[in-house]
Recover the amino acids of this structure.
C-alpha cells in the first residue's frame, strides 16, 4: 500500500477535537465550539495533503456514513476503471478502539461486496498523534 499511497483516498474520523487543536490543525475557538456541538470531523487525505472533508457529523454513526459515501464516490468516479478491473482494495484504520474498528469493518464490506477489505490496522503514530484515541478511518487504494 505504501507505493500507492499518493493515489489513495483516505478518510479519517476524529473522536475528539483535542488532538487536532494540539497539533495546530484547528484553532482553540473551533475546538471549543466543535466540542460543545459534539462534532466528529472527517478528515480527507489525498496523496500527502490532509484537509477537512466534513465538519458536520455529530455522532460516530453519522461520521462512518460520511466515510462510506466518500469512498463510494471515489470508487465510482476517480477509480471507476481500476475498480472494474478488480484492482481496488479497502483498508480500515483505528486508534485505541479495536472493537469499534471490527464493527466498522462490516460496513464497507456490506457497502462494497465486490471490493476486498484487505487490511485492518492501527493508525500510524504520525496520524494518531493528530487524531487521538477513538479515531476510525477507511482508505481506498490500488492493489498490485
Amino acid at each position: 500500500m505504501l507505493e500507492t499511497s499518493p493515489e489513495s483516498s483516505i478518510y479519517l474520523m476524529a473522536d475528539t477535537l483535542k488532538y487536532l487543536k494540539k497539533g495546530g490543525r484547528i484553532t482553540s475557538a473551533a475546538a471549543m465550539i466543535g466540542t460543545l456541538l459534539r462534532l466528529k470531523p472527517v478528515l480527507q487525505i489525498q496523496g500527502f495533503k490532509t484537509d477537512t472533508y466534513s465538519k458536520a457529523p455529530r455522532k460516530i454513526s453519522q461520521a462512518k456514513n460520511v466515510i462510506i459515501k466518500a469512498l463510494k464516490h471515489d470508487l465510482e468516479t476517480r477509480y471507476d476503471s481500476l475498480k472494474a478491473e478488480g484492482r481496488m482494495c479497502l483498508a480500515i484504520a483505528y486508534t485505541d478502539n479495536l472493537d469499534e474498528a471490527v464493527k466498522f469493518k462490516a460496513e464497507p464490506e456490506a457497502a462494497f461486496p465486490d471490493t476486498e477489505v484487505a487490511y485492518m490496522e492501527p493508525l500510524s503514530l504520525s496520524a494518531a498523534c493528530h487524531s487521538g484515541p477513538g479515531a476510525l478511518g477507511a482508505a481506498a487504494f490500488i492493489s498490485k
